[in-house]
Amino acid sequence: MTFRPALALLFAFIVVAPVCAAQSAADLGAGAKPRKESTLPLKPTADEAQAAQLSARFLTRFHYDALPLDDAMSAKIYKAYFKLLDSEKVFFTQQDMAKFAKYKDQLDDAIWNEDLSAPFDIFNQYVMSAVARMEYARSLLKKGFDFNTNETYDFDRKHAAWPKDEAALNDLWRKRTMNDWLRLKLAGKSDDEIRKVLDKRYSGYIDRVKQLDGEDAFQTFMTAYAESTDPHTDYLGPREAQNFDIAMKLSLEGIGAVLQARDDYTQIRELVPVGPAAKSGKIHVGDRIVGVGQGEKGPIVDVIGWRLDDVVNLIRGKKDTVVRLEILPASTGLDGKHQLVTLVRKKVTIAEQAAKKKVVTITDGGVTRKIGVIELPTFYSDFGARREGDKNFKSATRDVAKLLGELKAEGVQGVIVDLRNNGGGSLYEANELTGLFIDKGPVVQVRDARGQVEVQGSDEPKMTWSGPLAVLVNRGTASASEIFSAAIQDYGRGLIIGTPTFGKGTVQNLVDLDRFGSADGKSKPQFGELKMTIAEFFRINGGSTQLKGVTPDIEYPQNGDDKDFGESTYDNALPWTHIAPADYKPVANMKAWLPQLRQMHDERVAKSPAWKLMLDELAQYKKMRARTTVSLNFANREAERKELDAVQTSFRNRHKAIDGSDAALVDEQSSLDDGLTPGERSLKQELKEEKDAKKAPDPVLDETAHVLFDAVGLIKAEPKLAVEVEPYGGKPLADAVAVAPPLQAPPAATSSAH
Length: 754
Fold this sequence. Notes:
The protein is of the alpha+beta class and 754 residues long. It is built from 22 helices and 22 strands.
């Protein structure tokens, strides 16, 4: 997902930063002064102007559905740009928009003529308006509010009009601020406490908006252009390009820490096991970084009040280089004694996003079976390390193959591949991973802009798991995950279980714009990268996952997010179509066991208290999500809160009865809205809630394990059925090794179905 710098930085700036990774300090060299805010007006650089034009050349010539950059496209960019800047229509008025209207057909000229003054003018106005709005909100705090009125606040403004004038905008912000106050009041805070919390919140927003720089302005504008071509084409500025690279290869060179902005400090949120920071024993979760020095003797740069990504840039660096951190320990107050910690940067693996396994033991009818589960968050691959011959390159397929070998050794009788919320990744990995379950054969068909179709798949025999298989999916299962799921379904190799998937059927290629730009001879240009849609993929049966996604063989209840989330929600998504099927043969026939499995599933969940509780919680979620307006009357909101508290208490008691403990539940005090935003709660509380969430019962996964348990039972009970549903008729294959054979190097251009 591409970074959304403007509104995201304003309302959600206090987020978990990427783990520190390999990158020099760029323009923030040793001795640089702390920067609290940017200087307005922000101005584009020559590199940015060239990068915009270079991107346009690629998008208008090589995009899968290439569109000219003309006045019609300018109007689309204009609309997308303001959607990114002011999607809730809370910063600009109709009068402002009338002044901006002159730019509607000029943004194409801005790119072709390398004159970005128009989009930068809009962004500068946005920054000033955002600061003015927050200052206005702060001014309201001194007097307070009357909560005995019958006013309401419409917080869902996606389809609202811009306020008519400044008076209307002030009234909107009065209600927004009033609602912020009321949430804290309902949580039991006094008026003085509320003033303190909100003044600190709004002043923090102002500081962060003032820190938006020219790269943020350019990133936002180019995102608007890229996504006006199709939903999955993105421009990645230098900051975002590096983060994308880290996400794909799941490894980096740095200190091994997850950082978070909190107030004016950069705080340690998490330590990566065996990373330099954790191994030092001198850095702990909650510690605040107040200074950074390069090398053994470089000066310490004061970073209090800095943007999070600027601090990260100083800490990042090449393997085996030294970085010194001035730490304010979590165990002391803000006036505590500082400590200086010297670390040597090393290569660190991001284990959180790597494939993981566990075993679920199911006992039913006096029979116990082990079901293996492989959770795969993304289809990652370190293409660079593979091409360089690194034997330990990071690969989703290699990791899953190893885990399958371990699960076999543990005696599992079925395997679930959990792809819930797996948004995709490497197309190459999707092909290779499928080969672990079908031996070899075509996996996907890829059609380029010329209409030529290439069949891709797994070419080497390497079936690692030949037993019963299920793939668990949901609406967040997208792209490369849909390729894998569709292939497993088309081959009849396993059950697809869950909810219909996202519906992304396009392939993107990453173009390094620095390879094509012109430098001035003095410095290397920093043009960023273009993640551009170059092809559409199709199932081997000739259908497409575009828009429709993959329909599960056994469907679970949906949560209603499909109205706002998924390919079908994009106005400019490509239409569904189909092509001729590839030359393939199903390895099994799953239809033979589906009626029995569906019946057994229906009968089981009808009697399951955990499943009924999940359905009731889903219904409550949909009810709350459907609301777009709240009352600003204290008595009304207090009554609503009591009603919600009763519902939550009921859910909590039912969980206790089912699970036998509160280990996975949010405690009673924090189950209702506390009026705070991320970063305002204590870090200890936030980490505890995250830990508890990970321990929470997972009725969806448990039921999927039961379905696979049933499948194993049917196979054992009916030998004729086993011939149909087991791959290749259950004929014995050579025992697969725990680790797949070496993978062939991919082509030089990295394709992604992300």
